[in-house]
Each structure stands twice: as C-alpha cells, then as structure tokens.
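ok new one. same drill as before - structure tokens go in, u give me an amino acid for every spot. 300 of them this time. try not to just spam alanines like last time pls lmao
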C-alpha cells in the first residue's frame, strides 16, 4: 500500500525507521527488510540532543541517529547484488537549519544516492551550526541546546524550496511541526510541504493535526508509532500503549499481535508509519498488517 503525495509521487505506507538502530546491526537489518518487502527507509543526519553518557538517561531522547553512512552501505549492496533497484525504494532523510544545500549533498554522499525521495526539516528549531557532516547538536554552557535565534523557519523552508529545482530530491516536507507551525509553513510556501512527520500513537493521537494535514493535502507520517515501547518506559517511567488491556483484547480478537493492531490503527487513519525494530521476527510481523482491517467500532 502507498499514499500519493500532493506532487504525485508514491510513498509506501509502512517503512522502517532507523533511529536508535546500532551501526553494526544496520547491514543485516536493511537487507532482510528489503527481502521481507520493505521499500521505505527513514533516517536522519543529526541527533537533536547531546551525546549523553549511557548511564545518564535523563533527556536522552535522540542520540542514536547518525547512521546514514551505514544505511548507504547496505543500500549500495542491495543495488549491486540486484536485490532491488533504486527506483523501487523510498528514502527519507532530514535537514537542519542553515547550510541546507551543503547538508543535503553530504547526506547524499553518505547514503551513496543520486537523489532523495523525501527531505524533511527535522525540527522547527535552529541550533548553532557545528559544521556540515557533524551529528550532534551544539550545547551551551548549561549543556542545553544552543539555540540560534537568527534563522527563521521561513528562511529554512525557502532554502528547501530552492533545492527542488536542483533535482536533489523529489519531495520536501517538515517534521515535528504542530498545527500552528504547519499553518505558518503553508502561508509562506511556494512549494507546499508534501509530508509532516510527527509522533503519533494511541496515547498521543494528534487527531487534530492529522486532520489538518489531510485537509491541506499534507501526508501525515507517524514516527514513534508504538509509543516508544520499552524505551519510554525505561527512560521516563511512562506506560506502554502495548500493555493496554483493550488492545490486548483486540489482538486476541483479530489473531494478531498488539503491535500489529496499533500499526493498523494508524494506517487506517491514512497515516504512514515508520516503526523501528532490530529483531528479525518483529521486522516480519510489523509488515504483516495488510491482511486484516479494524472495524469502525474497534478503531473508535
């Protein structure tokens, strides 16, 4: 299944996100994912946050991207061996503010690609520039994000628009934008964002944002579609939406896993999902969501 973006390109409705994926796992996971049927891979150049010591888990919310090169090596092997053709895949990575052209070219080099299918503004906030190709955000003297107040979101979006004519990617979009920031982007855009990628799962449904995007022809993509699962439970002490008794009951009813129920729920909202897993069996099960459909009552 795929969703047609507002510029006519097709985006597979399920992909594999590589956030928090270890570099030494990347090759086997990507090759196996392609064999299973995945054609959509989502990555990013930069981790939005400091490289914290593993013992210091507080605020450690985005320290495991930085694996574009490893993804690129796996993709190159898949192309070289004839496992898949470049035109069959949908590859997304993300920009940060300032030096957008240079950053895009650096990502293409690491990914060993001639073009991207989708390039997103990673966060609606600019941090001080630490150099093209660096993978950690700048910190101030208090070890907090060093915010650059001289770069506006409008400026960044116009930089993204300028790249469209260069043929470096097929679609541009935004990430982690709420309704108001999405509205502002639409107001200043010559090229409408094709996608808005944001957190969405049963405990954080973002229903108004999903509907706003749909109304304005923007594809909603759900990152963290399983609610962070074990990671959020360990880091923040929050409950996992996979332990909810109602969803366990639905899993039994449909003879599916709770994960499959949660992914299917998002898909039936016409929302693209990019779950992450490093386990081969889960990789298979996450993709097995097209042979059943939740009733309206169960969706509600």
């Amino acid at each position: 299944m795929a969703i047609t973006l507002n510029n006519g390109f097709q985006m597979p409705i399920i992909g594999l996100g590589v956030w928090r994926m270890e570099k030494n796992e990347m090759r086997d996971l990507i090759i196996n994912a392609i064999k299973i049927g995945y054609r959509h891979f989502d990555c990013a150049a930069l981790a939005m946050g400091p490289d914290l010591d593993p013992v210091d888990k507080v605020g450690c919310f985005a320290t495991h991207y930085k694996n574009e090169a490893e993804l690129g090596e796996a993709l190159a092997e898949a192309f070289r061996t004839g496992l898949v053709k470049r035109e069959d895949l949908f590859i997304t990575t993300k920009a940060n503010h300032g030096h957008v052209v240079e950053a895009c070219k650096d990502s293409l080099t690491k990914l060993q690609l001639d073009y991207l299918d989708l390039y997103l503004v990673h966060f609606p906030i600019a941090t001080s520039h630490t150099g093209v190709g660096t993978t950690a955000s700048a910190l101030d003297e208090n070890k907090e994000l060093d915010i650059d107040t001289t770069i506006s979101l409008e400026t960044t979006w116009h930089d993204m628009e300028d790249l469209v004519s260069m043929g470096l990617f097929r679609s541009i979009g935004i990430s982690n934008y709420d309704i108001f920031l999405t509205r502002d982007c639409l107001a200043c855009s010559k090229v409408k964002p094709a996608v808005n990628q944001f957190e969405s799962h049963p405990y954080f449904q973002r229903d108004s944002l999903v509907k706003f995007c749909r109304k304005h022809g923007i594809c909603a993509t759900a990152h963290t579609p399983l609610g962070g699962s074990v990671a959020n439970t360990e880091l923040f002490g929050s409950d996992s939406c996979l332990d909810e008794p109602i969803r366990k009951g639905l899993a039994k009813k449909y003879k599916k896993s709770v994960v499959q129920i949660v992914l299917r729920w998002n898909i039936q909202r016409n929302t693209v999902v990019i779950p992450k897993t490093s386990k081969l069996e889960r990789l298979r099960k996450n993709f097995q969501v097209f042979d059943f459909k939740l009733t309206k009552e169960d969706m509600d």
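The chain has eleven helices and ten strands. and btw The two ends are 23 Å apart (CA to CA).
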